[in-house]
Amino acid sequence: MSTLPAKPGVRLSVSEWDSNNRQLSAAAQHERLISTVVRQEGRSLRIETNCKTAWDESDTSRRLRDRALDVARWKEALETCAQKVDEEMEALTLCKEQNEQALAATATPLEVSTECLTLREGRRGHELVADPVDEQLRKEVELIKRVQQVLQQDVDEAFQQLSVLQEARHQLTADLQNKMDALEIDMSCLSLTVKSPEISLKTNPTRVPSGSSTPQEWVQFSQCNAAHAQQAMQASQQMREDMSLTRAQVGNELETQRLATEFTLRKRHHHEQRARDELEWQIKKTEDEMAEMESDIHGLDADLQAKTASLKLAHTRLENRTSRPGMDLCRDEVQHGLVNEVHQLEATITTLEQKLSEAQHSLQKMKLHHGRMLQDLSRKQEALSLEQRSMNTRSHLRPASSSTKAPALPVPLTNSSGRSNLQLLAQ
Questions:
Q1: Which CATH code fits 25-192+216-266?
Q2: Where is the segment annotated Disordered (predicted)?
């Protein structure tokens, strides 16, 4: 019987085999022990970091809510202040317009007084005397000029104060817009969570942005804006009281002087009537021309629409013929005719559009001039009415009629601060 061949190599003993098995078991136990320690430390770290992260997120959310509340409070305060500034600007603008109206109203009395003095200078011989009428007329002219200076000064000061209020309003608006933007950003940050899709890692997010301010500077900035607006409003309120007081005083003085002055009005009334009639004729002719121009514009627009429809038809035919298959996609006479038709229609439309634009521009100019003529006609009619009223009023001012009329009560010259009888027009 033959024997099996032995496997070549070094053979270990049974004791060495047992020793190797024990080493493997000991190493496995040691690695498992280390793994257990690492797992326990990892679990502890996870619990600790989760708690810390949750607390930090909660604390940050609380800070965001507190900050949003502060910003919202300042936003409401600035909105209230801005609304008060707007109301004060409207009140001051109305007061300024009243002064401007009062200033404009002095133009007619000054013209009447000057015209009366000029007419009375035409007297000759013994009739050219320095009577009390001349004295009262000259006093009236001097008073009106002083009133114009005072009212114009008040208007200029009111305009400057409106600029101050506008600047304060601009500062409040800019600060308010910043507050609204900041509040929106903070509320957006407050709404973010770890599951929000728009979160991501940023480059150097902990940097301090340039131009950053401290909380104290932030509060002081809004406080300064509000304080500046309050000061401007207080100055405006005082100015409105002074302007109202001035208007009342000059109104009383002008009315007193008007009642004291009696003279006969002479006006070139027929010249103004002729100018009014000429203007009415020009307005009528302009309206007729405007009507004809509007009719032509409608015709041009209708032609333009018709040519546009023809152009659409040619475009559609050209586009549809591009679908011909194979060799039938031929640049035949129809193709050339359609192309020429498109070019002709485009040129025609351009010409019609230019002419329509010229017609519309001409019509717009006529309308503007028509409006100016209507405004001028209204002013002429108002001037004629004022002149007629002035003549009628002065013609009825007689001692007998004035004695039966109840005297006009003077406007009290006081304001909210208790001041009265301001000598604004002192000699």
A1: 1.20.1260.80
A2: 389-427
256-279 pLDDT, tens digit each? 877 676 544 444 456 557 767 888
Confidence of residue 224 (pLDDT cuts 50, 70, 90): very high
Please tell me the distance from the alpha carbon of residue 235 to that of residue 157, in angstroms, as a whole number. 11
Q: At what angle do helices 333-395 and 269-321 cross, to 10 degrees?
A: 160
Segment 349-402, tens digit of pLDDT: 888 888 888 888 888 888 899 898 898 777 766 555 645 654 454 553 333 333
Three-state DSSP state, 414: strand
Kindly provide the b/e burial profile for residues 382-393, where b requires at least 16 CB atoms within 10 angstroms of the residue's own CB. Answer: ebbeebeebbee
3-state secondary structure of 409: coil
Domain residue ranges in the chain: 25-192+216-266, 272-322+333-396
Indicate the SS3 state at residue 420. strand
Q: What is the DSSP string of 107-140?
A: HHHHHHHHHHHHHHTT--GGG----HHHHHHHHH
Q: Which residue has the higher pLDDT, 345 or 89?
A: 89
The CA distance from 44 to 33, in Å, is 17
